[in-house]
Amino acid sequence: MFNKKILTYLRFLPVQLLIGLVVCTWIPYLFFDWQYSIFGIAKQTTFSVFISASLTVSTIFTLNLIRRFPGINSSLYILPVFFFWFIVIVVVSGLTYLPFSIAYYCISSLCLLSFLFIVNIINRHNTIQTLAYIPVGRAIDMPEQVPTAQWLKLDSTNLDQEVNGIVTDLHSYDLTDEWEEFIANKTLEGIPVYHHRNIRESLTGRVKINHLYENELGSLLPSGNYMMVKYCLDVLIILLLLPMTLIICVLTALAIKREDGGKVFYVQSRVGYRGKTIKVYKFRSMREQAKEVLTVDNDDRITKVGKFIRKTRVDELPQFLNVIKGELSLIGPRAEFIDFAVKLEQQVPFFNYRHIVKPGISGWAQVNQGYATGAEETQLKIEYDFYYIKHISFTLDLLIFFRTIHTTLTGFGSR
């Protein structure tokens, strides 16, 4: 019991940071200082300790933020997050021209990678949450709405087993004085109590579209500062990928031209940022005279080359030009066809709020659901989009970036 209690502390970010800095930064430094000082390597480790600590803090902090998003298997993101910060810190350190020990940095990085996998194995049993729920108001059907958790229905105020939290409708008039006293007592015991909407949102990755919901800053507007940083990062990433992108674009253009001799590019009018109409550029993946209607499975309008470039998302590479022009972002809700957007506005009164951020080439809805075709799938897509708008952040964008790579390799959601 004592050992189990100690291991549970590894779930907390401050404990992970403290142990990580000691094991992955300080201990390797002591080893180098004692073992290699006669060769002068220890003089280089002064700055190396700083960059190693930066890698440790950035990686652990980012992984903890990513774990908060729904449906995330954290073990799948250890390597992507680790290598992302490893490369970023190496590039930044190289630009400063300050001396640092490559050997120390690599040894420290290997220690960090091992530490991350050990922590993940220890905390793996916490992946599926056991939640008790008080069946009142809109919390009555929580097991049906959120099947990803293990649910314990509370018919009385007796709770005799360990749970990760308690869920109820805190706004319900059916929440009696007895239940409110129970909630207060359990809160004092350290058991978190959640409003049904918050826990549903955090476990499904969707925001119900019955009402408008403010973001974490308490505003309907996303952070203007982050939106500016986001645009700068988009342009920087495109410039870094430009040599590889140009080669792929040339090969794709030649393949399209060779197949049927038609136009290489296709221009679509779509709804953009704040409801303005934009022209979106794509590689043509259908026959030239194909009608503009939603695609379906095994659509015969799609060419052979088109099937491949749609599956790998290569058809969307020309949209990098839209990103540089400031019309699109790399990450954001998908830009809708104008006619389709008008129909959705009639069904959802505040659908226009979806345009409060720039549409993206990839997004939270795309990596979770793929392309929507029917009315039910479209509603789910909007719920995913509203979740993204409410929780927009660098960490969520980074998570979508990693999942987009997986989507591109697997062809998930392509039509």
What does it look like?
The chain is α/β, with parallel strands linked by helices. The protein folds into 3 domains: 125 residues, no CATH class; 75 residues; 187 residues, no CATH class. It is 53% helix and 8% strand. It has 15 helices and 8 strands. Strands 2-1-3-4 form a 4-stranded parallel sheet. A two-stranded antiparallel ribbon has the order 5-6. Strands 7-8 form a two-stranded parallel sheet. About 1% of the residues have low confidence.
In short:
By secondary structure, this protein is of the alpha/beta class. It has helices at residues 2-8, 13-35, 41-67, 78-96, 102-122, 142-145, 177-188, 196-204, 224-260, 304-311, 320-324, 338-347, 364-369, 375-391, 394-410, and strands spanning 130-133, 150-153, 165-168, 193-195, 265-271, 277-283, 329-331, 360-362. It contains 15 helices and 8 strands.
| Strand element count | 8
Oligomer: single chain
The Rg value, from CA coordinates, equals 25 Å
Structural class by helix and strand composition? alpha/beta
Biggest β-sheet description: 4 strands, parallel
Q: What gross morphology would you assign?
A: flat
Helix/strand layout:
Blueprint: H1 2-8, H2 13-35, H3 41-67, H4 78-96, H5 102-122, E1 130-133, H6 142-145, E2 150-153, E3 165-168, H7 177-188, E4 193-195, H8 196-204, H9 224-260, E5 265-271, E6 277-283, H10 304-311, H11 320-324, E7 329-331, H12 338-347, E8 360-362, H13 364-369, H14 375-391, H15 394-410
Parallel strand pairs: 1-2, 1-3, 3-4, 7-8
Antiparallel strand pairs: 5-6
Helix pairs in contact: 2-3, 2-5, 3-4, 3-5, 4-5, 9-10
